[in-house]
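Write out the bound-state structure for manganese (II) ion.
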Amino acid sequence: MHIDKHQRDNHNESHYQAHKAKWDALKSDINDVEGVVKKIIDFQIAIPSWALGTGGTRFGRFAGGGEPRSLEEKIEDIGLLHQLNKSSGAISLHIPWDIPKDAKAIKILAAQYGLRFDAMNSNTFQDQKNQLHSYKFGSLQHVNKSVRDQAVQHNLEVIEYGKQLGSNSLTIWLSDGSSFPGQLNFRKAFQNTLNGLQQIYAALPEDWKMFVEYKAFEPNFYSMTVGDWGQSLLYAQKLGPKAFTLVDLGHHLPNANIEQIVSLLLMEGKLGGFHFNDSKYGDDDLTVGSINPYQLFLIFNELIEGMDTRHMDHATDLGWMIDASHNVKDPLEDLLQSVEAIKIAYAQALLVNTKALKQAQEQNDVAQAQEILQAAYRTDVRALIAEARVLAGGVYQPLTFFRTLKVRERLISSRGKETIATGL
Ligand code: LRH
Ligand code: MN
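---
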């Protein structure tokens, strides 16, 4: 869906005065405000192709209607988000859920919406129709070489699709593990998995990266063969300079200190990117910043400290991706809120007085350190995000405008109420 320029301009005109008042008040407190606004504009977040429909659980799935029926319609939906927030300029595809039948046409369609292809995702956690060997007992870890070879082959096919689309990274999340003590030889499972990853690594084009995504549990509930940041780091270090870890915020045990994990992975130069979402219990895949926005701010505070220490480019040197599942919200509204929450956390972290914080840390002035951090966290930066968004050609209030345009109603009338999108 292409948004009419006049409708966009009418929306922005009607919101300008309210915005100007807030922005004028905020910008006077921001050092190097042009630099901060540019960083916000350049910060693009990849939208998962598997999260444009309604998600569900084993207990039920309540489709909302108007869901994309093809990869083309998924690109149109992400294109719509990007027109509204000018911050969703990339797609992360999942294979085989989103096999590009005509890669050239898909690439052209995405380019028409200003979209590029971020990390490709392989899938050896489900058995496809007429698949020779089952992944019931794992894929790269499997005791049978024929199953392991099949999984390696699949990842090589995913790389080929990515090359056709201009992607330059592969995310490997393995559901491999065990659900009962005694079921698995952990060392053999690790070595089989490493061997498989090495074969895939060897097939990576020169400029590609491999992201090894870890997860503490589910669908296995006793051990996961890439179960935490330490195991993922071990694989990435043994694989080589193109291999990195991927931090999915929902893949940690309760109360894990994710910001410390991020700081240390950055220190080792082995942090590859993120799957942003939020959770209260397990891998809940909820809207980013909906449960624990302070944790997200603390993660971005460590990211900026670590990336600036390594002179990394905030916009391009790490993979910024959402991985969420929408059980009760409209998928597109959920994604608009998630992108907004990520940009708010990034902007607040950019406002941290790092010089004063270092000083407080050097003087063990714990109370002052908290004051400095929370002064930034308690800054309402929404006018800054809105200013950057409109300067980039977006709208002041994406969610409001999405509803004003009656996008969901229009999608239901053009696609139908019962359409089901591929994905989780
Ligand atoms: C696993 C995961 C992984 C994806 C899947 C859709 O929980 O986070 O990143 O492959 O969700
Ligand atoms: Mn994930």
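---
The CA atoms of residues 186 and 366 lie 42 Å apart.
The chain has a mean pLDDT of 97.
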